Amino acid sequence: MFTKKIFIALAVITMMAVSAPQAKAKQDILFGGASIVGVYYQVALQISNIMNRHQGSDYNYIGRPTGGSVFNINALERGAFDFGVAQSDRNWQAYNGAAEWDGKPIKSLRSVFSMHPETVMLVARQDSNINKVEDIKGKRVNIGNPGSGQRGNAMDVLRIYGIDPGSDFRAEGLQHHEAARALVDRNIDAFFYTIGNPSAAIEEPATSVDINMVHINSPGIKEMVAERPYYIMTSIPGGTYRGIDEDIETYAVTATVVTNENVPDQVVYDMVKTVFENLDELKGSHAAFRNLNVEEMLQGLSAPLHPGAEKYYKEQGWM
Ligand code: GLU
Q1: What is the model's pLDDT at position 7?
Q2: What is the CATH number of the domain that holds 279?
Q3: Are 274 and 149 contained in the same domain?
Q4: Residue 107 Rama label (left phi>0; alpha psi -120 to 50; beta)
Q5: 180 and 306: one domain?
Q6: How big, in percent rounded to 5, are the helix, strand and coil portions of the chain?
Q7: Does pTM top 0.90 for this prediction?
Q8: Residue nearest ligand 1's atom 3 by CA
Q9: For 236, phi and psi rounded to 5 degrees?
């Protein structure tokens, strides 16, 4: 009798232990940025901070530095990341099988929302006497690492200005934090960079050496911009960077958050909902984000929208 009571008590305890709520495992979400000195890395970090602050019981977001747009698009396809940042022109090329993706389109790429505009820039050390794009002939110039978005923009600019990277100047393929250092150390004369403003990536070299920024606005550039929906002509207002007092005319793309079709709808839905419910927090987290607004964040998406994002935008009556 006594033994039977103990047995029943033990059985009850065991059943309670088994059915007791277990601590729910958090889901790791990897978010690819770009160079540590760039704005993309801030997109990945600041969105991760917002997610961990407001959805921390479900998710553990991790922002990662990467090689840039091209790297992120390819990593999303391999399933190495859940989200990444990429230029609008690179998304278009990847989804439609152009440029690096010629003959091998990435049909799994999905858009989430747009972020800040990014200008295509050529930044030179003032003493290298580069006052227009053509002046890079005979110089040493960083066009960007192969995983970056700007490398393709640099190649377009060079083609349009009729400059050959092999024979007309010495082209380097450095990651951006290396390029900024190399400019200051006089190992290169100039670098191309496609990035949001203001950015530490330009501010830092601009405070160490006198810099110059050139207009990228030839008729050929304007023609290309008019032909392609993801480019616009714009200018970087004078005073944005130390030593650059005049407005610099060039063209721009949009930084966008992208994902893969295999990322679950709920994960994408929770991310966009939390970001838009805390948009002021995101806007306040970096100077390049201060003009973000719902209307523009839903524009310029060149890969199809992920259904998890679409669901939230429809619920809000935004589409
Ligand atoms: N637009 C650059 C790229 O796609 C990155 C700029 C940044 O780091 O903010 O590689």
Answers
A1: 55
A2: 3.40.190.10
A3: no
A4: alpha
A5: no
A6: 40, 20, 35
A7: yes
A8: 149
A9: -90, 115
Structure tokens at 102: 């010629």
Ligand 1 atom closest to 253 (CA): 1
Q: For residues 48 and 284, is the Cβ–Cβ distance under 8 A?
A: no
Q: Estimate to the nearest angstrom the gap between the alpha carbon of 266 and the chain centroid.
A: 22
Instruction: Give me ligand 1 centre to Cα 153, in Å.
Output: 11
More confident residue, 9 or 221: 221
Whether residue 256 has its Cβ less than 6 Å from ligand 1: no
Does 241 share its domain with 162? yes
Closest atom of ligand 1 to CA, residue 118? 1
Position 261 in a domain? yes
Give the distance between the most distant pair of CA atoms in the chain.
99
Distance, in Å, from the CA atom of 84 to the CA atom of 74, rounded to the nearest integer, reads 10
Closest-lying ligand 1 atom to the alpha carbon of residue 69: 4
More confident residue, 22 or 264: 264
Same-domain status, 160 and 227: yes
**Residue 220 shares a structural domain with residue 300:** no
